[in-house]
Design a protein that fits this description.
heterodimer, A: 7-stranded mixed sheet, 4-stranded antiparallel sheet, 0% helix, B: mainly beta, 6-stranded mixed sheet, globular
Chain lengths: 115, 114
Amino acid sequence: NAGVMQNPRHLVRRRGQEARLRCSPMKGHSHVYWYRQLPEEGLKFMVYLQKENIIDESGMPKERFSAEFPKEGPSILRIQQVVRGDSAAYFCASSPPSRGGTEAFFGQGTRLTVV
Amino acid sequence: DQQVKQNSPSLSVQEGRISILNCDYTNSMFDYFLWYKKYPAEGPTFLISISSIKDKNEDGRFTVFLNKSAKHLSLHIVPSQPGDSAVYFCAATTNTGTASKLTFGTGTRLQVTL
């Protein structure tokens, strides 16, 4: 059973471009969470999704950021018109429907660098 | 507003000795607490958790203690091993419904020396 898969592992974007981060949850997991870790900080919750639904997006910046988890395919975190301050490690986590989010399993992260 | 705090950014312990990592929280609604271990360039790995109805949970070399009145928890690793060297994150959640989001501390970097 493969773990949570994130790609790409590293992403470099110029200011103003779009960044797309992908997350494939573990098999059988229907809950997906995105977290962001800025340098020297802890992980900060961004958004919680189930298939085709955004359940909690209280941690998402109001502009430029969006997330989806379609019926088929991976979850996507999209950042439009990136700025230097978006440079961070973005982690995806997944959990099965019966266990809730308490023991979520994390992917290896995507390190976004905006130049 | 940092609801989960790890006030020690780093800790150095000799191999074989006990490592004690501390965590404080401010939100009384938190009722489930977790510790994650993180190596560089990897995602966090779940280590151990504790529900607010307990004050201790043990798993092998790892024990987590919870003091609800003080809003404090600690992770004890004994004996410490060089492979334990990593960043340890404390996390908390309100375990309502079928899922919940985690609030993380800023982490403590543990270095286990030979």
